[in-house]
Write a structure and sequence with these properties.
single chain; elongated; binds tryptophan; alpha/beta; 19 helices; four-stranded antiparallel β-sheet
Length: 475
């Protein structure tokens, strides 16, 4: 048997989440590490290597962009409703890693969501963000000049998208996804659409245009991700179907609403005035334009055009070609056809940290978490008090060993405090082997590391003060 210090007590639950919701297992840790070795890129952080990031949707497209050095983006958001703590740090650690790989970085301060779902005023949410979250983002290593942080309440493009995409979803679907009911207040009911706006707006032309985007979140956010991916697809003018053996079929969707069809035809008429007012010619012209500007542009050949069916069939396409084609068509839709051209965003899911006291980690219960703003002495004290997997007596522990899988201090090592894999394995072996008692373990592996972490963050926040105001952009 092999000792696996990274397996978690909760793995079966995450497995079930994956199975039930169709989340794929995140198996890019090794591939990202290999890429880092080959290319001299920064290695993936512990949470990516250790299975803390356990699931994904659509990450393949993002990995392809990383491999090829194509443009891509990462967007995530936090609600500034309580102190920023180690649980929130998880997300920023991933964003920082992606930034080091070349992603465009967006972080949304979800003040509207905090207002409508938690009752905070926008002013209070802003205060918390400016005094705690943002300074910590920079202290954690995000590059101020390469990070776009914005407030949900201030970005018109986000709110406009919420309204526009709202047209494409009805109340029954919202009920089915979120369990909303007649009692749900409308502000709360809009929050998911605002989040869809957050995620998709980074593909608008003024924010970088269509490209792969990854959204690192806790698995509780998955309903928003599914909704976003569905709505991104719904805005597309062409559909793409890969049928093994037959190749790829690109079809002009025939379920466009009237406004879209009119806009399409108008856009087309501006580019091909000779076709204006000749109904029936539009399909042919659209297919020809797509063929030229999207398919041929990425090197497709031997494409069959079927005007009555409104399709283009590319027989020799491979699975990877599908991503390129999707992106090329998205760009074509966004530029030539004045559509949205959103490619479906990817997501990753990380495990939640448990509370230091053994239950849930909660922003409103200081004893359950270590806040990034906690002074070193307090952080050490909280860690010293963390629930462990120790035995009732020292004698028993020497005989049976501790259960590190139940230890909340050990969890902080895995997630944050002991990045070195050998050192982590050493702590695990000594702990489970009964060679060390819990107090000793915390003194060696935990307390100095947490004191250093929060101490460094305090310094980092000071250093970031001047960068702060310059970074926040409203539009
Ligand atoms: N709903 C997220 C939370 O509860 C915050 C959030 C808002 C977000 N917009 C987002 C997360 C976009 C990821 C992407 O914390």
């Amino acid at each position: 048997m092999r000792i696996d210090p990274w397996s978690s007590q909760q793995s079966t639950d995450y497995q079930r989440l994956r199975d039930e919701f169709g989340i794929a297992a995140f198996d890019y840790g090794e591939r990202l590490a290999a890429l880092a070795r080959q290319r001299g890129l920064p290695p993936p952080p512990p949470i990516v290597r250790r299975g803390i990031v356990f699931g994904e949707r659509g990450f393949d497209r993002v990995f392809g962009a990383i491999e090829r050095g194509d443009p891509w983006a990462v967007l995530t958001g936090l609600m500034p409703s309580g102190p920023m703590h180690l649980g929130h740090k998880l997300v920023i650690d991933q964003v920082r890693y992606y930034q080091s790989l070349g992603a465009d970085v967006f972080i949304v301060v979800a003040d509207v969501e905090a207002h409508v779902t938690r009752g905070l005023t926008l002013e209070r949410a802003r205060e918390i963000a400016m005094s705690d979250y943002l300074p910590n983002y920079f202290a954690l290593g995000l590059k101020p000049d390469r990070t776009q942080i914005y407030f949900q309440s201030e970005r018109a493009a986000v709110k406009d998208l919420a309204w526009k995409l709202g047209r494409r979803i009805n109340w029954s679907t919202m009920e089915a996804i979120y369990g909303f009911s007649g009692e749900t207040n409308m502000g709360h009911a809009m929050a998911p659409l605002v989040q869809v706006g957050d995620i998709l707006h980074v593909q608008l032309p003024e924010y970088g245009g269509p490209r792969p985007v990854v959204v690192p979140v806790g698995v509780d956010q998955d309903p928003h991700i599914r909704l976003t991916r569905d709505l991104a697809q719904a805005t597309r003018i062409f559909s793409i179907n890969h049928e093994p053996g037959k190749g790829v079929v690109v079809a002009l969707k025939d379920n466009q609403d009237k406004a879209t069809v009119e806009r399409l035809h108008a856009a087309l008429a501006r580019r091909r005035p000779e076709l204006a007012g000749k109904p029936g010619h539009e399909t042919k012209a659209l297919l020809e334009a797509a063929l030229r500007e999207a398919l041929h542009a990425i090197g497709a050949s031997d494409v069959e055009k079927n005007v009555p069916y409104g399709t283009l069939t590319w027989k020799a396409a491979s699975a990877r070609d599908v991503y390129d084609l999707d992106l090329a068509l998205a760009k074509f839709e966004a530029s030539a056809l004045e559509g949205f051209g959103f490619v479906a965003p990817a997501s990753t899911y990380h495990r939640f940290m448990q509370g230091l006291t053994g239950g849930k980690m909660s922003s409103s219960k200081p004893e359950t978490h270590i806040a990034l703003n906690d002074p070193p002495a307090l952080a050490e004290k909280k860690l010293a008090g963390a629930v462990t997997g120790g035995r009732a007596t020292a004698e028993e522990q020497r005989r049976l060993g501790a259960d590190c899988g139940k230890c909340m201090a050990y969890e902080t090592y895995v997630y944050h405090l002991v990045p070195d894999d050998d050192r982590l394995a050493e702590a695990f072996e000594k702990g489970t082997g009964g060679k060390m008692l819990c107090g000793e373990c915390k003194s060696i592996y935990g307390k100095p590391a947490i004191a250093k972490l929060v101490g460094d963050l305090a310094d980092g926040r000071k250093a970031a003060e001047s960068a702060l105001k310059a970074t926040v952009r409203s539009e």
